C-alpha cells in the first residue's frame, strides 16, 4: 500500500480576529490555495481545499514536497501566519479524489500533529509514525520558526528574493542597494542559516521514504 503525506493547516490566532477580518483573510486564503494547487499539480494527490472554518487540507504524493508547499503558502498569505500539521502514512479513498472523502492513518496523524502544534504554540508539527524522524524534523522546524518570529517584512522580502535569485549581488541589483546591505540583512537575521536548515530538511525528507529506519508503522 502506498503512503501519502497529508497537510492540515489553519490560520494562527484566527479566533482573535473580528468577523470582517476573518472573512477577508478567508478570501485571501482561498486565492492562495488555488495558486498552490496550480503550482504543485504534479505533486498533489488530492487538491488543497477549505474543509471547515479557517482550516484547510490537502494530500501530497511525497513527503519531500512538504516544505516547498508550506513555503509557497507562507509567501502567498504573508503577513497572515498559518499553522501546519503534517501526517504521513496510508490513506483510504471513499469517493471523489478530495480530502473530505478520504481517511486513514495519514489523516489521523496530520490531525494529531495540528493539535500538538496548537498546544505547544509551534508553527509546524510532523507525525509520520517514526519517532527518530519526527524528533529530528520537528526540532529543525522549531528552530527555523524561532528565528523567523523575529523577522520584519524586509527580512522576509530579502529571504524570498535570495531564494529566487541565488546571490547577494542579484538581490542588491533588484532592490537598488549595495551588496553589503543585503549581506548584512540576510546574515544578521540568520536568514542564510534558515535557508541551509531548509535544505537539510529537504535532504532528510527525500531520503525518508526509501529508508527502512524511517518507515511509517500503520499497524
Beta-strand percentage? 15-25%
Any idea what the shape is? globular
Question: Major sheet: size, sense and barrel closure?
Answer: 5 strands, mixed
Radius of gyration: 18 Å
Second-tier CATH architecture: 2-Layer Sandwich
Global structural class: alpha+beta
Structure explained in plain terms:
This protein has helices at about 20-40, 65-75, 105-120, 130-150, 155-165, 170-175, 180-190, 190-210, and strands at about 5-10, 45-50, 55-60, 80-90, 90-95, 100-105, 125. The protein has about 220 residues and is α+β, with helices and mostly antiparallel strands. It has a single domain (about 5-90, about 100-150, about 190-210), classed as Reverse transcriptase/Diguanylate cyclase domain (Alpha-Beta Plaits). The chain has a 5-stranded mixed beta sheet. It has a two-stranded antiparallel sheet with strand order 5-6. α6 (about 170-175) packs across α7. InterPro entries: SatD (IPR032580). Pfam families: SatD (PF16264). This is SatD family (SatD).
Secondary-structure map with pairings?
Layout lengths: L3 E8 L7 H21 L4 E9 L2 E6 L5 H12 L4 E8 L2 E2 L8 E2 L1 H16 L3 E4 L3 H18 L4 H13 L2 H8 L3 H10 L2 H18 L11
Parallel strand pairs: 4-7
Antiparallel strand pairs: 1-3, 1-4, 2-3, 5-6
Helix pairs in contact: 1-2, 4-8, 6-7
Briefly, what is this?
The protein has 219 residues and is α+β, with helices and mostly antiparallel strands.
Amino acid at each position: 500500500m502506498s503512503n501519502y503525506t497529508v497537510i492540515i493547516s489553519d490560520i494562527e490566532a484566527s479566533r482573535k480576529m473580528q468577523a470582517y477580518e476573518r472573512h477577508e483573510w478567508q478570501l485571501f486564503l482561498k486565492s492562495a490555495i488555488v495558486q498552490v494547487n496550480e503550482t504543485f499539480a504534479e505533486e498533489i494527490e488530492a487538491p488543497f481545499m477549505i474543509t471547515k472554518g479557517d482550516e484547510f487540507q490537502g494530500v501530497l504524493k511525497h513527503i519531500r514536497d512538504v516544505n516547498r508547499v508550506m513555503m509557497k503558502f507562507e509567501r502567498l498569505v504573508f503577513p497572515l501566519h498559518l499553522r501546519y500539521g503534517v501526517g504521513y502514512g496510508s490513506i483510504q479513498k471513499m469517493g471523489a479524489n478530495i480530502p473530505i472523502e478520504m481517511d486513514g492513518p495519514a489523516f489521523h496523524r496530520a490531525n494529531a500533529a495540528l493539535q500538538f502544534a496548537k498546544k505547544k504554540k509551534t508553527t509546524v508539527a510532523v507525525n509520520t509514525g517514526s519517532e527518530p524522524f519526527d524528533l529530528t524534523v520537528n526540532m529543525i522546524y522549531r528552530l527555523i520558526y524561532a528565528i523567523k518570529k523575529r523577522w520584519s517584512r524586509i527580512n522576509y522580502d530579502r529571504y524570498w528574493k535570495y531564494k529566487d535569485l541565488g546571490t547577494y549581488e542579484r538581490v542588491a541589483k533588484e532592490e537598488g542597494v549595495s551588496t553589503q546591505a543585503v549581506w548584512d540583512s540576510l546574515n544578521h537575521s540568520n536568514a542564510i542559516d534558515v535557508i541551509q536548515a531548509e535544505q537539510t530538511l529537504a535532504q532528510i525528507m527525500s531520503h525518508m521514504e526509501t529508508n527502512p529506519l524511517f518507515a511509517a508503522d500503520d499497524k
